[in-house]
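Sat 14:20. Reprocessing the chain from the morning session after the first attempt stalled halfway. Input below, unchanged.
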Amino acid sequence: MNIAIVGTGYVGLVSGTCFAEMGIDVTCVDVNEEKIKSLLQGRIPIYEPGLEDMVKRNVEAGRLHFTTDLLTCLDNVEVVFCAVGTPPDEDGSADLHYVLNVARTFGQNINRYTVFVTKSTVPVGTALKVKAAIMEELAKRGADVEFDVASNPEFLKEGAAIKDFMTPDRVVVGTDSERAQKLIAKLYKPFMLSGERMIFTDIPSAEMIKYAANSMLATRISFMNDVANLCELVGADVNMVRKGIGSDTRIGKKFLYPGCGYGGSCFPKDVKALIKTAEKNGYEMRVLKAVEDVNEHQKGILFEKLEKHFRGDLKGKIVAMWGLAFKPETDDMREAPSLVLIDRLTKAGCTVKVYDPIAMDECRRRIGDKVVYCKDMYEAALDADALMLVTEWKEFRMPSFAVLGKTMKQKVLIDGRNIYDKEELNENGFAYYKIG
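Finished this time. Tokens:
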């Protein structure tokens, strides 16, 4: 099979590469000439474990191609995936400008039956707009070409995206066409050999599933952060509470870890977009509004703990920060708690020394020289009055507290991911603060 994927961001590049790995001929399209030039030279624009090698392997095998022009491959493909960005508008709703531009290009140039599949995260009702845009362009041409529209939301976790795509726990496809359903089922068949995990729905349901899934996960995170903050006030241990409720099979253990707030490219954007979709339809998502409020407050919780420890006197303090990315195994800093903390710390007069295994360049790109960049975790902690763990990278899990105790100016550790043992820290003379 031959397919095209428009958009070589996180979703488009991972999806295209994984399809190619299964023997499908894939052309990835992007209007950014520099990005395409880099990809043709084997350099990828994102960090994702294992992706660079997979891209090189499939380019060399002749299954994965890159171009800036969809027209070069449109006559040869059976399916066009739209994986362009849907950034939030000023009001929080999803910006469909790029998606509809791809739809119009599709309508202006198809000459035979082709399926247009929206893989971008889009609000309910987008497929109708996409279909209308394509039909409008066909009418302008006076062309009578058959096509179908489908929705195929992605559920990739940054840092584990290749595994998620190659062995998915489910593949959701929304379509009202049996012809399109058979074609997409054939496309995903190589990924289903260990068990059928395809879910076919109507298009609005498929569009809603992605938003509902991410909003549910965000809700669990904010709920546990709310519980953690209450635990501190009443003297309970949130880790014990988490184990106690997670053992209930109706609840489960996943996404019950308290921390310093969620970030990234999906949860914040999708929660906002679902709230806005509800408003446009005359309904208020009261729970999700609370989820958002809790998360925004949680991003500053480490700062509040630091401020309380030093009794409001933070001017001139040196604060070490371990971790900048919103989660491990990625360089993504979109909506990351680290950005909120850096802003509040520098405004309070602190010097912030940072280290992250992957996201240092991304941090420089975002905030420049607002912080001191260090070559490793121990350099960041040198002469620090306090250390904040913000992202739970593996290399941060077992530091030498003896070394830290000798090199830090003051022994204060604020654990934003609850990965350290309080007794061990206290034995080494540290003032230790965690979430809950």
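DSSP finds 17 helices and 14 strands in the chain.
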